Amino acid sequence: AMALCLKQVFNKDKTFRPRKKFEPGTQRFELYKKAQASLKSGLDLKAVVQLPPGESINDWIAVHVVDFFNRINLIYGTMSEYCTERSCPIMSGGLKYEYRWQDDCKYKKPTKLSAPQYMCMLMDWIEMLINNEDIFPTRIGVPFPKQFQQVCTKILTRLFRVFVHVYIHHFDSIINMGAEAHVNTCYKHFYYFIREFSLIDHRELEPLVRMAQ
Predict the structure, then answer these.
(1) pLDDT exceeds 60 at position 17
(2) I need a labelling partner for 4 at 20 to 30 A (CA). Which of 42, 96, 147, 159 fits?
(3) Angle ∠(52,191,178) on CA atoms, nearest 5
(4) Residue 140's pLDDT is what?
(5) Gap between the Cα atoms of 84 and 82, Å rounded
(6) Would you identify the CATH topology of the domain 57-211?
C-alpha cells in the first residue's frame, strides 16, 4: 500500500487546490525526495519520520507540513461528494467533538460552520500560510521566523481534524472507494510524525485515540 501511487486511488481532478510544489534544485526539494524515497522503501513509518542526520528540523517540518497538506487535501477532495451541507451540517468528530472556525480575518470568534465550509476555509488558510515567504521561506539562506513551529502546530492540529471527521463520519465511503489502506497509511505517517516532534497537544488526539492503539 505504501508505494501505491496516489493517482491509482484518488481522482486527480478532485483535488481541492493546486498542489504546492518544491522547486527542484533547492535544499527542500532534496529533503522532500529523501523523505519520499524512504517512504516508498517500505521502512517502518516510525523510522521514516526521524530527522535525518545533519538536517535542519525546521526544513524537515516544512517539507512534511506541505506534503501532508497535499495528501490530506487529496483525501478530502475525494471524499467531498459525500461530505455535504446536508450530511454534515456541523464540523464534528462524532457526538463529543465539534470544531469551530476562527481565522482572525473573516471569523474573529470561533464560529460554527458545516464540515464542507470548514474544510474550504481550512484549505484556503493553510494554502495562504505555506505560500507566504515570511513564514515558509523558500530562498536559500532566508531563516524561518521565530514562530514557525507554532504556526506548523496550528496547521497540523487543524489537518488532524480532517482525519477525525473523515474517519468518524465517512469511513464507509473510504472502504467503498477501496482507499482504506491508503488513508490508513497516510494517517499513520502523520501520527508518527506529530508524535516524533510533539507537534500536537495530546488532548487534540483524543477523538482517534482508540484507533491509534
Answers:
(1) no
(2) 159
(3) 115
(4) 75
(5) 6
(6) Butyryl-CoA Dehydrogenase, subunit A; domain 3 (1.20.140)
* pLDDT score of 139: 80
Over residues 106-163, the pLDDT tens digits come to 899 999 999 999 999 999 999 999 999 999 988 878 899 999 999 999 999 999 999 9
Contact 196, 49 (CB under 8 A): yes
Q: H-helix or E-strand containing 28?
A: helix 27-40
Using the predicted structure, report yes or no on whether residue 11 has a pLDDT greater than 80: no
**Angstrom distance (rounded) from CA 87 to CA 97:** 16
The residue ranges of every structural domain in the chain are: 57-211
Hey, what amino acid is at 100? Answer: R
Strands 97-98 and 92-93, bridge-based pairing: antiparallel
Which three three-digit cell numbers place residue 160? 488532524
User: How many other CB atoms sit within 10 Å of the CB of residue 116?
Assistant: 18
Q: Which residues are annotated as a binding site for Zn(2+)?
A: 83, 88, 165, 170
DSSP strand E in the chain: where? Answer: 92-93, 97-98
Q: Regarding predicted confidence, which is higher, 196 or 40?
A: 196
0.90 cut: is pTM over it? no
The three three-digit cell numbers of residue 161, written as one number:
481534524
Point out which residues pair with 98 in neighbouring strands.
92
User: In degrees rounded to 5, what are phi and psi of residue 42?
Assistant: 80, 15
Binding residues: 83, 88, 165, 170
